[in-house]
Design a protein that fits this description.
elongated; Rossmann fold; HAD-like_hydrolase; 2 domains; alpha/beta; about 45% helix; binds magnesium ion; about 250 residues; disordered N terminus; six-stranded parallel beta sheet; hydrolase; Four Helix Bundle (Hemerythrin (Met), subunit A); Putative hydrolase of the HAD superfamily; 9 helices; magnesium
């Protein structure tokens, strides 16, 4: 196996987003509940204004569990699009709104409006305080890309300006661990895998595919227990803030 010390200097860094640059759980839970509740409330007002309240309340007749079930069914029926979460949500919402009793055109408009709300809520992530200055500094030495399976509208976040390339892997129907999203990021950055490092929190979706391509990897493992030594080229970190020290150490080897 190649020893890290025999590797050539790194040129490019690719970053996972959710749970690597910020804690995603709270925002995701609020977004999931929030956009569905928003749809239920706004739709009730709209129907009342049109004297069509006899349809009842949307979320009472079709609670959020029905929406989640519909999304799972769509992902199973369309395996290629299973990672395209925006498409799945739009389709599921539209189908439920039609089932509720709205005409198809109105169902689409309400589904798209609810997804606007979804994206606004989804953007309320709080990057760890070290992330912004860290990316600004790393961008002076490395070419940077982001690769996410999530459907966050990343280009709307100020933080995205640090990345030359941002890949929404689910929307290109190649969610991690599919190697194609990594290869696309590297091709766009003009970097070869052996001179690149991927940084992410998921062993299965971030670390394994990166290592298989010959990239180095920094695993943001938090307090995940482990009893074994890391494979060659994999570096375990507790938090993203430890990345600059790791890169400095590798640069000295
Ligand atoms: Mg992640």
């Amino acid at each position: 196996m190649t020893r890290p010390s025999s590797r050539r200097p790194l040129q490019a860094l690719t970053f996972d987003l959710d749970d690597t640059l910020w804690d995603n759980q709270g925002v995701m839970a609020l977004t999931e509940q929030g956009h569905y509740a928003w749809l239920d409330e706004r739709l009730a007002e709209w129907l009342a204004a049109r004297d069509e309240s006899d349809l009842g309340r949307f979320a009472e007749r079709l609670p959020i569990e029905a929406y989640q079930r519909r999304r799972r069914e769509l992902a199973e029926r369309h395996p290629l699009r299973r990672g395209d979460f925006t498409w799945i949500r739009e389709q599921a919402l539209c189908a439920l709104l039609e089932e509720f009793g709205l005409p198809r055109a109105a169902s689409w408009l309400w589904a798209l409006a609810a997804m606007e709300r979804f994206h606004a809520l989804r953007l309320r992530v709080s990057p760890y305080p070290e992330v912004e200055p860290m990316l600004a500094e790393l961008g002076r030495h490395y070419r940077l890309a982001s690769i996410t399976n999530g459907n966050l509208a990343f280009h709307r976040l100020a933080l995205s300006r640090h990345f030359e390339v941002s890949i929404a892997a689910g929307e290109m129907h190649a969610p991690k661990p599919d190697p194609r999203c990594f290869l696309m990021a590297l091709a766009k950055l003009g970097a070869s895998p052996e001179r690149a490092m991927h940084i992410g929190d998921s062993w299965q979706e971030d670390i394994l595919p990166a290592v298989r391509l010959g990239m180095q990897a920094a695993w943001i493992a938090g307090d995940t227990p482990h009893g074994e030594a890391m494979p060659a080229g994999v570096h375990r970190l507790s938090h993203i803030r430890e990345l600059p020290a790791l890169l400095e150490k590798l640069g000295r080897e």
